[in-house]
Amino acid sequence: MRDAVIVEAVRTPIGKGKPGGALSAVHPVELLAHTLRALVTRSGIDPALVDDVIGGCVDQVGEQAMNTTRYAWLAAGLPESVPATTVDRQCGSSQQAVHFAAQGVIAGAYDLVVACGIESMSRVPMWSNVPPGADPFSAAIAARYPGGPVPQGISAELIAAAWSVSREAMDAFACDSHAKAAQARAAGLFEAELAPVATPAGIVTADESVRPGTTPEILAGLRPAFTDPGQAERFPQIDWSVTAGNSSPINDGASAVLITSSGTAARLGLRPLARLHSFAVTGSDPLLMLTGVIPATEKVLRRAGLSLAEIDLFEVNEAFASVVLAWQQETGADPAKVNVHGGAIALGHPLGASGTRLMTTLVHAMRERGARYALQTMCEAGGLANATVLEALD
Predict the structure, then answer these.
(1) Residue 116 bears catalytic tag
(2) Of 31, 269, 283, 390, which has the fewest CB atoms closer than 10 Å, so is most exposed?
(3) Structure pTM?
(4) Does 175 participate in catalysis according to the annotation?
(5) How many CA atoms lie within 13 A of 286 on its CB side?
C-alpha cells in the first residue's frame, strides 16, 4: 500500500492583519507565490513534476478571489502545466488541503502534490465575502437553531462557561503561548521553517504578534471582547471572560508543504520529514462550534490505532484559550506536550494559512525533539474540526 510523506514544509513570518502590519503591503497572491517558490527551491524538485497544488483560503473575495492558489503558482513563475485549486473548510482549510493531497497520493492519483494556505486579513478583512444585508445561513438554519448561529467569540464564551474555564486560566494559557513562542524564536527554532519576505519597508524575518513581555497582570486589564446584551439575554451562563489577549489575533501569512510517497521520495532523492499516518474530520454543535477538536482527536486516534499517551507532541489551534483548555480537560493530554513552540495566540492565525502553518511548525518540532508521533487538530466555524496524526520515519 502506498503511503504519503511530507518532504518539505515552509511558511512566511506572520504579520499583523491590519493596515501597517508587516506584510500588509504584499498582495495575497504574491505572498503565497513567495512561499511556493521557497518550497520548490528548498526541496530542489522539478516543479513540472507536481501533479496538483491544493490551497486553503477562507475569505475568497477581492484580492483572494478567482482561485488564488492557481494565480499564486503562476505569479511564482512556476510551470503553467501544473493545475491548482482553492478549498474552504474555514480555519482548517489548509489542513484539509493536506488531507486531500495525502489521500490523493495514497490512492495513486498523485505522485507529488503541494498543500498550502493563504490569508491576508489586512487586505481582505474577515467577512468580506458576505455583503451587507446578505444571509449566508438561510431561514432553515434559523429555524433549526432558534436565535440563529453566533459569532465565534460567543462560542468561545459558551465553551468557557460549559467547561468552567476561568478568566485567570485563559490569561495564564495566553501568557504561556507568548513565552513559548519567544523562547523558540530566541533559540532559533523557527529558522528552518521560515521564508523571510521582502516588503517595501524591508525584509520581514520574524512573527509580528509575539509579545515576550506578556504577563497575567497585563492581560487582566483587558476588557471582554465580545460583550453583547442580546447574547447575554440568550445565554445567561456567559460571564464575559474572553478578551483580545486570550484569543488569537488577526493576521497575514502563507504556508506550504510538499507531499509525496516514500517510493517517489526515494526516487527523487527527497528526505521525508514525517509520514501522514491518519486523518479525521468531524462535525459538531454549530453553536458551540469550536468543540469539534474533542471528537476529532478521539476519531483520529481510533483510526491510527494509537492511545493518547503514545502521542509525543500536539498542535491544537489556539483560536481561543478556552478551546484548548476544554480540549485538555476532555482528553487528559499532557499540557507540556501541547503547542510546545507557542500557538496562534502568540504566533498568529492567518485563517486559510493556519493548517499548513501548524503542520510546518509541528514537523520541525518533531525533528528537533525526536518525537515519533504527533497529532494536529483545528476547530472550524460551523462546528467542524480536522485532525491528523504524523509519524517520524527515522
Answers:
(1) no
(2) 269
(3) 0.97
(4) no
(5) 13
- Side chain identity, residue 180: K
The pLDDT tens digits for 89-147 are: 999 999 999 999 999 999 999 999 999 999 999 999 999 999 999 999 999 999 999 99
Task: List the catalytic residue out of 57, 116, 175, 379.
Answer: 379
pLDDT for res 72: 99
349 given a catalytic annotation: yes
Amino acid identity of residue 11, one-letter, is: R
pLDDT in tens, 209-259: 999 999 999 999 999 999 999 999 999 999 999 999 999 999 999 999 999
Catalytic residue among 34, 99, 178, 349: 349
β-bridge partners, 377: 316, 387
